[in-house]
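2 proteins. here.
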Amino acid sequence: MSSTPTAAADMVFFGSVDSTVYALDANSGWAIWRFRANRPIISSPTVVDDVLYIGSADGHLYAIDINSGRKIWSYETAGQIASSPLVHDNAVLFGSTDGYIYRLSTSGRLQWRFKTRGMVISSPVVEDNILYIGSTDHHLYALPL
C-alpha cells in the first residue's frame, strides 16, 4: 500500500505500488473492485459525489466511479502525480512533478495551471478561497480561486 486510505459509502479505497486502486467492503474487507493504472499509485484518493479522484506515477489523474470501478475520465500531465487531489467548488486541485499546479473541472477539463520552479508533490488545502500548496522550489504558493 502506498497511499492513505479513504472511506465512503461503506467502502474503503486505497492505491498501491502494484499500480492498482482497490475498493474494499468496509465491513467484511472483501474486494469489491480493482482499477489498474499503468504505473504505481502514489497519491491518496479523494471521494466526492460517488467519484474517486487519484493520481498515479503514470502522470494521470483518474476519476473513477466508486460503484463500478470504471474510469470516468483521466487527465495526463507531463510528470508523476504524488499530490493527493482536493475537490473544491466543483474543481479538482493537485500538483505534478512536472512543476505545475492544476485546476480541472470535475468533468476533467483543464481550467488553469500554474508553473512553479520545482516539482509539486505536496497536497493542496483551501482556506477562505485561497489554494495553498508547496513545491520543491522551497515556496508555499497561495493562489486565489
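next one coming up
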Amino acid sequence: MKKIGDGAHIPKLISSMFHFIYYHQDKSWEKYTYMGYPILQNPMDLWLYQEIINETKPECIIVTGVAFGGMLLYFLNITQTFVGMSDTEVIGIDIELTKSAKNLIGTPHLHIIEGSSTDKKVIDKVNKIRKFKSAMVILDSDHKEPHVFRELELYSPMIRRKGCYLVVEDTNLNGHPVNPFWGPGPYEAVSRFSHTEQGTHFYADNDIWSKNLFTFHTWLKRI
C-alpha cells in the first residue's frame, strides 16, 4: 500500500480538506441562486448535472426535496434548451412547499407534488405523470438513513434505461467529509442499498469525482 508521503493520496487529501472548508465556511453553497431562486447547490455539481442530462436525455426528471424551487427551475430550463428534450417532464416532491416553490406551480412540463416522497399516494401521482418513461432521479429530501434507503427502494425501479442516473445528494454528510456528527445519512443508505438485489443494477460513477476532485453527492449509474 502506498503511503501519504509518496504522493499517491495527496490530491484526495487536499480535495477533502477544501471540501470541508468550502462546505462549512459560512455555508457559501447556500447563498447561490438561479434566476432569483435559492438553489442550495455546489455550482460544480450543477455543471455535472447539465452534462449528464445532455448525455443521457432522460424522459422524466424526478426530484425529492424541492426547497425553494431553484433546482426544479434549473432542470426545467435545461431540458427546454437541449435539442429533443422539450417534452421532458420535471417532477418535484416536498412534504411542505415554500412560497417560492408554489410560485412555480402551473409552469408547463413542471409538476410539484406536496407530500412525503415515500407515501404511496405520492408515488402513484409520480407514476401517473411519468407514464412509464425512463427517469433520472435525484434524492434530496430527509437526509436520515432510513428515509433515504426507502427512497432508493421506491425510486430506483423508475430508472429503466442503461446509463441513466440515480443521484443521492449530500452523501458528504456524517464525516464524508463534512458534518461529522450528523449520524447515519445518505452515505450509509447508499452503502446499504448497494448490498440489495436492486442495488446490483447500479454502480457509483467515480469518473464524476475525477472531473472536479470533489462532489457533494453520489452518482449511481444504471447498469
